[in-house]
Amino acid sequence: MPVEYTKITGENQIVGLWRLEDEEKEVSEEVLFSSQAALQGYRKSHSEACRELIKVITGWDKVKIVKDKFGKPHIENSKSHISFSHSGEYAAAIYNIADPVGIDVQEIKKKIVKIALKFTSDKEYEYITPQHQIEMLHVIWGAKEAMFKKYGKGGVLFKEHIFVHPFTCEEKGHITVSFLKENQEETCTFKYQFHDNYCLVYSTCHL
Q1: 127 to 149, 169, 170: CA distances (angstroms)
Q2: Which of 34, 187, 197, 199 would be a feasible disulfide site paired with 138, CB 3.0-4.6 Å?
């Protein structure tokens, strides 16, 4: 169960991915750099894996994760920012020294088409191409989930408060995401990538 991780925003931010599989099944090294020494022989639940990932990507032996009144996770006695996600065989975590962050990993499934109108606005649906419909819907969902976690205060309607600007679907790329709720407005860049039938989306920086 190797951990793959990389720095993505200078020295401020690190993303970690952990594939929860049997040890003999190798994780592709095409997405991120692998750390074969980390977490050898462990078999944990998704939530435990996310917490263990924070230890790996920070290099800290002891990390206590606490949640605020909105359920947003924090490292106790630290001003840094973290976010977790898990789906299927993968757990993901993001750590940033200075800025709030959000991350989402989702196994790609066709059934997302059936619920698309619950989280996708008319303007977003206009730019979705038929040949990449399923993939683009996962990017949009992942971006909105990651933005929701980045905001971290609850009371968010994905269809009304978060807008994913038009993008061309590639194997990996950047997208622009806007958050509009009452008097708060924020536009950020996010990264996405497809790997092994999963879609990973995570925040990068403010525009």
Answers
A1: 25, 11, 14
A2: 199
